[in-house]
Design goal:
Blueprint lengths: L1 E3 L8 E3 L12 E3 L3 E2 L8 E13 L2 E12 L3 E10 L1 E5 L2 E4 L7 E5 L2 E3 L5 E2 L6 H13 L4 H18 L3 E10 L2 E12 L1 E5 L8 E9 L8 E14 L3 H5 L4 E6 L9 E5 L2 E8 L6 E8 H8 L5 H13 L4
Parallel strand pairs: 1-7, 4-16, 5-17
Antiparallel strand pairs: 2-3, 3-15, 5-6, 6-14, 7-13, 8-9, 10-11, 10-14, 12-13, 15-16, 16-21, 17-20, 18-21, 19-20
Helix pairs in contact: 1-2, 2-5
Length: 318
């Protein structure tokens, strides 16, 4: 019996739009979502999920911890997907080598070995699962619409599959409560504002996390998702110039979610708690307050629609 954590699905690329002939275009880096526990495993009930995003420049350290109740003890196989894209190098995409990936996993506070990482499109069942996914998305469509949708999905997956890696680990679950934790680094989407011919602009960083796979799991009556976002606290000079750091957490409809902000140990900390009515997707923003506001108000890009295909495929939503 296997269950799967898809901790990051990602297709990261550079998109530029020319403005003036003598001025470089703004830099925009798009990044797909992380995802919570995938297919439910028999005899497991999720009691709680804890998510923490520690933001630094262009990258976030993600900690995903699950409290799981197990009826029957035994060994379980866990699989997760993470980005091959490290970021930009000389304004070009740079893919990570598998050896560069920083991943740790623990079962009941005991470190477990993570199996060798491999590209997702080299998995034995990849082509079969992709065909099933396309069939589910085109069911009931006219031949013309089905062909268009099929081509769109094939294009998106061809662009993204070689930028996603898969890793596995196994762990023995005991009867009763178990703690599963995965820690990894995820590059963030970036959008530049205020650049010119003579100067670089400032960036708003975003990270998308899919919570929807948890909706298919048995959840405890007192189930909760506890989420924390943290970044460095603004210095007095940045605050004086109106460039204090800001964290923001939004739901799938683009509305800011209820949260609290506090400061401790020189860092800013945003906290949010959800119960059974948790949002299907959250999007975290980090950057200077004025830049975050501009990024938040930008219209949804075509790429964000494409990542819906990627997230659904990785969550086996078919």
């Amino acid at each position: 019996m296997s269950c799967l954590i898809s901790v990051t699905s990602v297709a990261l690329f550079l998109q530029v739009t020319h403005t003036h002939a003598n001025m470089r275009p703004p830099i925009t880096v798009h990044n797909g979502p992380s995802s919570s526990l995938r297919a439910p495993a028999e005899g497991l009930v999720v009691q709680e999920e804890f998510l923490r995003f520690d933001f630094a420049e262009s990258i976030s350290t993600v900690t995903a911890e699950y409290k799981i109740h197990c009826k029957q003890p035994g060994e379980r196989l866990f699989e997760f997907v993470l980005p091959a894209q490290l970021g930009l190098e000389n304004l070009k995409n740079r893919l990570m080598r598998p050896a560069e990936l920083e991943i740790t996993a623990e079962v009941n506070r005991v470190p477990v070995e993570v199996d060798p990482v491999q590209p997702i499109n080299t998995l034995q069942d990849f082509e079969h699962e992709l065909a099933d996914f396309i069939q589910s998305r085109t069911k009931g469509m006219t031949d013309r619409d089905a062909n268009v949708t099929s081509n769109d999905i094939q294009h998106v997956m061809a662009e993204s599959a070689d930028r996603m890696y898969v890793a596995h680990f196994t762990g023995d679950l005991r009867p009763g409560e178990n703690i599963l934790r995965v820690t990894y680094q995820q590059p963030m989407a970036r959008e530049e504002f205020g650049h010119s011919k003579l100067r670089n602009g400032r960036f708003a960083d975003t990270l998308v996390y899919e919570l929807s796979p948890l909706q298919g799991w048995p959840l405890a009556d007192d189930f909760q998702i506890r989420m924390e976002l943290t970044t460095s606290k603004s210095g007095w000079w940045s605050t004086f110039r109106g460039r204090s750091n800001k964290l923001m957490l939004c739901g799938p409809e683009g509305k800011e979610l209820e949260s609290t902000v506090q400061h401790e140990n020189g860092r800013q900390l945003l906290k949010a708690v959800f119960n059974h009515d948790f949002p299907a997707r959250v999007k975290a923003y980090c950057g200077n307050a004025d830049i975050v506001a501009r990024a938040f108000n930008h219209p949804k890009s075509r790429y964000e629609h494409e990542t819906d295909f990627i997230a659904a495929f990785l969550a086996r939503d078919w």
